[in-house]
Amino acid sequence: MNETFDILTNASLWAAVLRIATPLIFGVLGALLCERAGVLNLGIEGIMTMGAMAGWLAVYWGAGLWTGLLIAALVGLILGLLHALLTVVLGLSQHVSGLGITLFGSSLAYYLYRLWVQVGDLPPTIQPFQPLKIPGLSSLPFFGEAVFSQSAPTYLALALVGVTAWVLNRTPLGLALRMCGENPHAVEAQGLNPIAIRIGAVMVGSGLMALGGAFLTMAAFNSFFPTMVQGRGWICIALVIFASWRPGKALLGALLFALFDAFQLRLQTSVSGVPYQLFLMAPYVLSIVALILVARRARVPEALMQPYRRGER
Length: 313
Fold this sequence. Notes:
ABC transporter involved in vitamin B12 uptake, BtuC; 70% helix; 13 helices
């Protein structure tokens, strides 16, 4: 018990929680925007993998870190446009299209990486984002190390939570986007184009997903390997349901999963005689339990996964 308390009160644990949560925050915000507009985007794994590769490759070829993030986001926008054309414009199955984007993005990322990068005994690396020391705050006891010594993309992710919540709940654009996920015909009755709004939401959401992947190669690590996303995209899909499609709760869900993950990593080194596989699966088991407890009360957008045709009801 004392050992668990020591782990939970260690600032390095909470610093790791924020780092682990950052790609999840980008991904869950992206998935939330898509689903609030009525489109399920199961292409998130492939989009995150392509974002990870594209951003890293741009920096490896000499671009700046922020330019790498921008390129990753643009790649995500393109894949989001592809998914939107298939599902919103053509009305094809969102499940099949999303899984196709995942397979396409993951495979293309690995192919381009092997085509353009010479891989030797050790994978090539870049100089990633470094922790930012905020004057006056980084020196604070506990909070300085836990919160105010993160890399810039982490602060960007946290800021985007507030921006997303403000846009969805306080702006006419957010109202129109939410109504596209509830009743797109009501949006059409107001003289707006639900198809254009859905396409825009899927593209922006996919760009955010790609930023989550880029964080892995440009801040959390300094190299690319094809399996580095490791199911984070599927966790983001589950976190959207856990959050009841609300940005604030999405942040809480990402931090909760990251806490489980960071905690099990420390337990592996402090507890002997227990198979490490039990620790590895603990965050996922606890996330499933939390999802079961919350999902029964979650209200799904009424038009989610329903194709829209102008003039039809």
